[in-house]
Write a structure and sequence with these properties.
By secondary structure, the protein is an alpha/beta fold. Helices cover about 50% and strands about 15% of the residues. It binds nicotinamide-adenine-dinucleotide (NAD). The site of nicotinamide-adenine-dinucleotide has 27 residues, from helix 1 and helix 7.
Length: about 260
Amino acid sequence: MGVIYDDLKGKHVLITGGAGGIGGGVTPAFARQGSRVTILDKDAASAHALLEKCRAEGGDVHFYQVDLTETEHLVAVLQRVQQELGTVNVLINNAGYDPRYNLVEMSETQWDDLFKLNVRHYFITCRELIPGMIKAGGGSIIMTTSHQFWIAFPNLTAYNATKAAIIGMVRSLAREVGQHFIRVNALAPGWVMTERQLREMVTPEIQAKLFNEQQILPMYLTPEDLAPSYLFLASDASKPITRQTLVVDAGFAMA
Ligand SMILES: NC(=O)c1ccc[n+]([C@@H]2O[C@H](COP(=O)([O-])OP(=O)(O)OC[C@H]3O[C@@H](n4cnc5c(N)ncnc54)[C@H](O)[C@@H]3O)[C@@H](O)[C@H]2O)c1
């Protein structure tokens, strides 16, 4: 058990894509703080497995199944969550996808689909949940972007455009809602060894290059390594911090 932030106890934290990957490390971390955690995800099997694990430790964790790209359903779910579980105090927009495309071969549908998940649902959750935060006298919004914004590998042009959009959104939205004591920050993970990354992208050669040439710290980043930074940005420990991007990538990007 790491640091306990007393103010996170009883806070309602909503995380998109909270059932797996980085979310699979962040959800239990908030549950262990005594927060009420709501996961929005399309993967019911992973969510139920995580729910069971968190509840066995006494966690107050809830799951709503939704495809975050289906706006009408997402809006209805966000209204239900607030009615059933109360105002959301901490919003973590996290679900995202990083397909590789050669830009000249990419279709408009592929471009639009990527923006629907990586950007549009961030906007919808903010639009629907900020009024409740205003009434509650404040809140913390954390938007997951990526250190790729600085590294900018080829074939990730569209993905990087979505992640740049999030940094832009954070910078303006923080000004828009700061008067209500709502803080808005971005968190830029490095290459996190999630199940999907290990399955689809990472080879022993890539890992060796990561350690020996790319990261300053020769360590594998795990979802559990990311969780403390989300806790910090959610808690009053970061009370004066807004409009920032925290890069958590073992020193890879020259951010
Ligand atoms: N893993 C990395 O190395 C890395 C690096 C930098 C940034 N990021 C960012 O971190 C965030 C999380 O990435 P991850 O690696 O944990 O991804 P992941 O694919 O491992 O997990 C994503 C979660 O979101 C859910 N999800 C995906 N699409 C959804 C949809 N349409 N509707 C509902 N739920 C959906 C999945 O079911 C899963 O639980 C993303 O925004 C990603 O761009 C990841």
